[in-house]
Amino acid sequence: MPPHPVRVTAVDTYDVRFPTSRGLDGSDAMNPDPDYSAAYVVLRTDAADGHEGHGFAFTIGRGNDVQVAAIEALRGHLVGRSADELCADPSVLNRDLVGDSQLRWLGPEKGVMHMAIGAVVNALWDLAAKRADKPLWRLLAEADPAWLVRQVDFRYLTDALTPEEALALLRRGREGAGERTARLLEHGYPAYTTSPGWLGYDDDKLARLAARAVADGFRQIKLKVGADLEDDVRRCRVARAAVGPHVRIALDANQRWDVAEAIRWTGALAAFDPYWIEEPTSPDDVLGHAAVRRAVAPVRVATGEHVQNRVVFKQLLQAGALDVVQIDAARVGGVPENLAVLLLAAKFGVPVCPHAGGVGLCELVQHLSMFDYVALTGTTEDRVIEYVDHLHDHFLDPVVIRDGRYTAPRAPGFSAAMRPESLARFTYPDGAFWAADPDTQKEKEQAA
Ligand SMILES: [Mg+2]
């Protein structure tokens, strides 16, 4: 008798919300009161190993239920399918989900539906890495380059990057990978911290946290800007005084400005030697970013956390619109589309400094940067992963930062799994935390 084939038996979803708005953690010019949330998905199989695939889309509160509904709309593509086949070639699922001809109308490849696809695809990669008994960065770094190329959807990319060029980049990237793996395991990957710079923090808290970041080994911090220019000038002065002249200060406007305003505002802060200006304007405005970049140099332009898909990244690179590519592990269509963006950035020679923070974004995206270092670009020069120091305790395999650097994960998987007790407590609106919150229960009654 052949062994019983392993099937996907369930796609469980959770609307998980953390009340971060109460401490103004995460506050910026566009998002003054985020409740960091995860539309969370667990793929279960009937395998005896008990492995599950965990993934999520990150949102900031209201709308997380909409995001969960979008994930549930994909259930029919998963339940009953062979887990062995899906894990052997995850690109099959990717193509099925992106290619669902009716759901595609809701995008294509953008917005809530595409983020749902990213969550499910990432959950499958988590499962595949657990079954391979490797952390995801290592699974990617040790995969056959031809197999990796097959994971990427090159549709709409070939005018900038062909599969043959990608294969050449990956083959070259593999040279010396063993040595870099050893270095990564010993020294980790450089990080920068946004924790001092939330817009809702007062000057004393900013100065204290900025000085502490330097003492903790960080060589770059980030400040939120864009609500009030006078405040920003003062806060930049406070931060620069706290960190000294040699630590990089990045600025983040979270899409607040029109193009001319972005140029004027960034110019007014240039005296404080900002390293980059992040999301100066709409994430869809390729030519606007290019205009800002020409005008504010040598300040760099960084963007990407809200870029919808690989096509927009391609255009940003083709138009010379950015100096720093900021992938987000949970926004585009998951691991394979982020592979496409890493390959594009490598081809154009632009460094990737991922967006992280939120819920679990640090846990996920570290794997992609570590793969890039070990087996694609081979360098960490001018590359840093964002770090924000909250909500990690809800994860089973939380990030470990040592001396301003991410320590390489060793546990198998994508570091995506949340603690069961956190899922139970913060499920909205009926988990223990929200059930005890009178405002939440009042809203629930009104909705009913
Ligand atoms: Mg940002």
From TrEMBL:
Record key words, sorted: Lyase, Magnesium, Metal-binding
InterPro entries, alphabetized: Enolase-like_C_sf, Enolase-like_N, Enolase_C-like, L-fuconate_dehydratase, Mandel_Rmase/mucon_lact_enz_CS, Mandelate_racemase_C, Mandelate_racemase_N_dom, RHMD-like
Cofactor: Mg(2+)
GO biological process, one term: carbohydrate catabolic process
Top EC group: lyase
Catalysis: reaction(s): L-fuconate = 2-dehydro-3-deoxy-L-fuconate + H2O
Domain called Mandelate racemase/muconate lactonizing enzyme C-terminal: residue spans: 203-299
Secretion signal, residue range per the UniProt entry: none
GO MF annotation: an example: magnesium ion binding
Enzyme Commission number(s): 4.2.1.68
Protein name as it appears in the record: L-fuconate dehydratase
